[in-house]
Amino acid sequence: MATAAAPLSIGPITVDPPVVLAPMAGVTNVAFRRLCRRHGGGLYVSEMVGARGLVEGDRRAAFKAAFGPEESPRSIQLYGVEPFEIRDAVELLVDDGDEGGRVDHIDLNFGCPAPKVTRHGGGAALPWHIGRLAAIVTAAVEAAGDVPVTVKTRIGIDDDHVTYLDTGRVAQDCGAAAIALHGRTAQQRYGGHADWTTIADLVEAVDIPVLGNGDIWEAGDALEMVARTGCAGVVVGRGCLGRPWLFRDLEAAFRGRPIPIPPSLGEVADMLADHLDGLVELFGEDVAVREIRKHTGWYLQGFPVGGDLRRRLNQVGSVDEFATLLAGVDRSLAFPEEVRRAKRGHTTSARKVPVPHGWLEDREEADWDLARLAPEAAAVVSGG
Predict the structure, then answer these.
(1) Which is deepest, 122, 228, 310, 351, by most CB within 10 Å?
(2) Are 102 and 145 spatial neighbours (Cβ–Cβ below 8 Å)?
(3) Burial 206-229 (b: 16+ CB within 10 A, else e)
(4) Which residues contact 97 (CB under 8 A, 6 or more apart)?
(5) Phi (first) and psi of residue 230, to 5 degrees
(6) Which residues contact 86 (CB under 8 A, 6 or more apart)?
(7) DSSP state of 132
(8) Going from the N-terminus, what domains does the chain have, and what CATH number goes with each?
(9) What contacts 307, CB < 8 A, 6 or more positions away?
């Protein structure tokens, strides 16, 4: 098998293999990033962090923007609806004197489909106003200095309000180092199938690297996406939920090596225990055991462990109880092939995208004061 793609260059950063962990709210914290990084190379991005919260010293925002001492490069995704908020947040993040340490890469979110974000003109709704989009990207790039800034977006708001080609051109003209495209509209949310042809179209439209996102459930999907679209790399989201070893498989695939066999139930149980250990280190035991509950179904998907065990894991109250429950599984059970491509995470289907009143009437309108219109829009800490 030939190597599918060359290493990805994002400014001075070389990403080899060309794989990026997608920001996922409540998932891609330090503990999960560390676990995924153990399995393979790539760029591991933080949860989405609200620029205003970061600037105003919100503790939740600061916590989500923190990195482990071993994390390098340090990659963060920012959300904001006003250029000055993004500028101020970027200046904080690239400051060598910052307590948390200087970041190495900043990604701007223009793809979140969550209603709490789009109804205030943020996320996937924002690129409809190309002037505001350009102002935000420019503010970030200028404030970042030698730290590369990238953009993540979707096809558009819906089929009647497509923005991805304009977003790519604006990002390139304003100095972004790369752009990632999720091949769905905001209206689709996470339903249906990602349209990879849009990724190929964007590759043809811009000169900066394009990363493809959407429906990468196993390593073969990544190779196929690169082959079909010509994209420079892939962004992996829901495919790694409960399967941090996907990054091992992706590294093998992009290096032209055979893809390893999936782990046994015993190996999966060990990963799940390691994940909890990382969460305990990050949050403390009480919060960690609550956080791990949502992950147990993803890790154990398809394994015949019984409904009682699943229920008890979803209600687990301590680290010791968790260890006792996992100790009772049949460690020899092979990975169930029938769920290899089963969906995990968000499965929401298409629905109308809420945007501010009058938002769609004029793409050039530059007078929207979104911070005044809805202060909570800029105060979003993480979502989507």
Answers:
(1) 122
(2) no
(3) bebbbbbbbbbbbbebbbebbeeb
(4) none
(5) 80, 10
(6) 51, 78, 80, 108, 136, 139, 140, 143
(7) H
(8) 8-260+347-356+370-378 (3.20.20.70), 265-339 (1.10.1200)
(9) none
Kind plus residue range of the DSSP H or E element containing 149: strand 149-154
Q: Classify the C-alpha dihedral 170-161-212-74 as positive or negative.
A: positive
Q: How far is residue 80's CA from residue 126's CA, in Å, rounded to a whole number?
A: 10
Q: Nearest Cα to 265, choosing from 334, 169, 365, 338?
A: 334
pLDDT at 382: 37
Cα 363 to Cα 309: distance, rounded to the nearest angstrom: 53
Tens-place pLDDT, residues 178-200:
999 999 999 999 988 999 999 99
CA within 13 Å, CB half, 337: 1
- pTM for the whole thing? 0.92
What does the mean pLDDT of the chain come to? 92
Give residue for tokens 């687990």. 316
**pLDDT band with cut points at 50, 70 and 90 for residue 348:** confident
CB atoms within 10 A of CB 122: 28
Amino acid identity, position 193: H
- Known catalytic residues are 112
pLDDT by residue (tens digit) across 303-322? Answer: 999 999 999 999 999 999 99
